[in-house]
Amino acid sequence: MAESSYLFINDLRVHYLHWNLADGSPMLVLLHGLASNARIWELVGDELAARGFAVIAPDARGHGLTDKPEDGYDFETYTRDLAALLNACDLIHPILVGHSWGASVALDYAARFSIGPRAPAGIVLVDGGTIQMDATGRSWEEMRDRLTPPRLAGMPLEALLSRLSVPNSRWQPDARAVRIILGNFEISADETISPHLSFEHHMQIVRAMWEFKTYERYARVRCPVIAIPARPLGPLTEQEREFLSNKERGIAIAQERVRDFRVHWMEDTIHDIPLQRPVELADQIAGFALPLK
Hints:
alpha/beta; two-stranded antiparallel ribbon; 8-stranded mixed sheet; about 20% strand; single chain; about 40% helix; Rossmann fold; 11 helices
């Protein structure tokens, strides 16, 4: 099971979960996605720890139990936060695993820090880090509207739980997955919820994602990379087909530009692979990581 700790870096009090830190095991750093938090890695972290890895999963600035300053919601700052975390923990050539937006943070870090002791030994892109938004043929306004989150602040907890319990043919979260999802919110005494990541900060990150040049980063990455994208079971909506096509295009570009780029498709799987397929995901991460350590 994970332990919970805090570090003070870059004027932030950063919360993180960790497994096996004391025993000198090979190190993995797990980065969550937008509006998520470190708890999404609980199931995968348990599996990786059982396979002999040491694991750290931080809450990014503005997320989870980490401080929420008014600025710094851009890739340069998030990469600087990650570098400070690795330095504070004295991690030499860690393997970075990013989910969704966190995969883009891992990719950005690997591009910026391609040499030296803090350079990653490898990166794992879990259903992220393969799409360049301004190359999809969609305008900023279209992408902004697609990625604008619902205004959940003030929603009764019971209403959220009701949403999560609606039968879904693709995946139904169990009790532990529901508890992990609830980690994205502060629950008030009156049993209403408020996302840990504010709406304003969320939209600042969305804008940074729009401006992020994914394809340019590929050419600057020197370490091995594995992409683990999700392919949901059909029939797909038009938007899902477009999203899948953009992932496939990005992967093809990465295979041309990254010397060692591998792919493992997670079939019949939703975007939140760490919750739906934790054992298979841990198997893929471990199989990629072990030869690099």
